[in-house]
Amino acid sequence: MPSAPSSRTSTPYVLGGGFRWGFGGVSWFGRGAIALLIVVLIAPIRGLYKATGSSLEEGFMLVFPNLVQQGWVPNRDFLHLYGPTSLDSLALWYRVFGDTLESERTFGLLQNLAIVAAIYTLARVSGHVAAVGAALVAAMFVMTPIGLTALAWHGGVALALWATVYGARARATRQPADWWRAAIFAGLALGFRPDLVVALGLTLAFLLWPLRRHASTLLIAFAGLMVGLLPMWWHLGRAGLRTAFEGMVLEPVVDLRPGRELPAPPSWDKIDGALQAVAEEPAPRWWLPAPQASHQLYLWFWAVVIVAIGTLVFAAWRYRRATTERPRETVESDETVGERDGGSFVPLGRTELLPLLAGAVFGFGIIPQALQRPDSAHLAWVAMVSWPILTVLLIDPIRRLVPPLRPSWAGATAATALIGIVMIVICPFYTYRMYALHTRVSIGQIPPPFEIQRGDHRFWVGDAAVARAVNDMIPDLEALMDDGDTLIVGPGDLSRTVYADTYIYWLFPELEPGTRYIEMDPGLADQAGSGLAEEIAAADIIVLTNTWSGWYEPNASIEQGSQEHNRAVADHHCLVQSYETNLVLLFAACEGGGGLDPVTIAGRENAIGGGGVESAIP
Question: In the chain, which end has fewer C-beta atoms inside a 10 angstrom radius, N or C?
Answer without folding.
Answer: N
